[in-house]
Amino acid sequence: MNDGSIDLKLSRHKPTAAVLFCAVFSCLAAAQSELPEFKQSDPISDYLNAIELAESQTSAYSTELAELYLGLGNSHFSRKEYEPARQAFQRGMQIERVNYGLHSLSQTPYLMSIAETESYLGNWDKSQQALENLYLINAQAYGENDPRMLPVLDELLDWYLTTYSERPANGGYQNLLISEKLGDRMYNILQQTDDLGDPEVPQLYRKLSHLHFFIADHLKEHGEPAENGFSFNSGAIVSSANTTSRMHYQRGEDALQKVIESLEQQDSPSALDQANAMAELGDWYLVFGQRGSANKAYDLAYQSLEGSEQTEQLQQSLFGEAKLIDFTQLNSKHHFSLAANNSEQTNAEAEELEISVTISEYGVPKNIEVLNAPENLDKKTHRKIINDIRGTRYRPKLINGQAISSSIIFPYPSPHQSQKIQG
């Protein structure tokens, strides 16, 4: 009985953010239910009312306020109101710091949200500053070489690689240099722990292979800028003087080999996962022009499925038709909720062209044709589409382990502009 009284007393003096928000929302809903027509409430107004209620019942730095400001920032962000969103995120972070200290780990979601918002405002340097702070508070809490830093490094890598395409060449290269530094730290921790049986390890090594593809592909297309030093934390300079596509080809290959080794050491290894990892290594060889090595890897992946349950179906899932090779697809478990909530499908994005193409046994697209070309498709745009497709490579269709030429038809999205300000 006394315990219940204590809990009730505490709850009266310290309402949670959820309770405050629900209280405000319930009052609004009750008032609206008396109206002849229901009018949907405004989330921003609801959050502001909940914040005002919390401040009146507690203080301007009550812990519950931080969560409310985070929700307020998300609501502004979803409306593309980036300046008030940033202010809300910063206020929430300030409250976390006042209550839990300047280096509290509870700041993490606020720092990530600030970084994302600053990128939409074109303030890429401030985005980097927020992410560096996120790294530093975690490194101080765990130690730079602690395995608990792996999820942090993974999330940071996701952000820098995902936003790479939203920046011009020099800005994108800065993203890659920072990513390379983060990737080196991730690799060192993985080597130090040497636990290939950890179920998270295959995806981390796969991420590292994708990182090295990003860098090699950038160098191939743009070369190295005149000023190629860039820092991330402690003034460390990432020098790319000796950076070559060949070096990153080797590092990416090594990472994919580690994916295969790690999958072999899992408690219940999946035959399809292992075959897919070998096929990905074949993809890597093919993209970098190592056709003989690619064919051997594909055949090994194909034959490895013999004797497994549903052999034919599994072989078909990997090699039944030609598939685009894209090492820029991260397949990350991290979900940037801000960007997801902010995306809006326009009519241009909804439109799709239908492309017919023949994929050779070496994964090269030929005989490219736009099947449903609209009347207003000019020659310049048509040429760009054809050239874009020519620049891709495909995992070829296999029959009995042998690559063959095949035809495919696939949708091609209409180009659309990024919502972010490049810089």
The largest sheet is: 3 strands, antiparallel
For the record, give the distance between the C-alpha atoms at the N and C termini, rounded to a whole number: 62 Å
Series of secondary-structure elements, N-terminal to C-terminal? HHHHHHHHHHEEHHHHEHHEEHEEEE
Q: In terms of structural class, how would the helical and strand content be classed?
A: mainly alpha
Q: What would your notes on this structure say?
A:
This protein is mainly α. It has 17 helices and nine strands. It has a three-stranded antiparallel beta sheet with strand order 5-4-9. Strand 4 and strand 5 form a beta hairpin. Helix 12 (271-287) runs antiparallel to helix 13. It starts with a helix and ends in a 10-residue tail after the last strand.
Features:
17 helices, 9 strands, 60% helix, globular
Itemize the secondary structure elements and their pairings:
Blueprint: H1 2-13, H2 17-33, H3 43-57, H4 63-78, H5 82-100, H6 108-120, H7 124-142, H8 150-162, H9 169-193, H10 201-222, E1 230-231, E2 237-238, H11 245-264, H12 271-287, H13 291-304, H14 311-319, E3 323-324, H15 337-342, H16 347-350, E4 352-359, E5 365-370, H17 379-390, E6 394-395, E7 397-399, E8 402-404, E9 406-413
Antiparallel strand pairs: 1-2, 3-6, 4-5, 4-9, 7-8
Helix pairs in contact: 2-3, 3-4, 4-5, 4-6, 5-6, 6-7, 8-9, 8-10, 9-10, 10-11, 11-12, 12-13
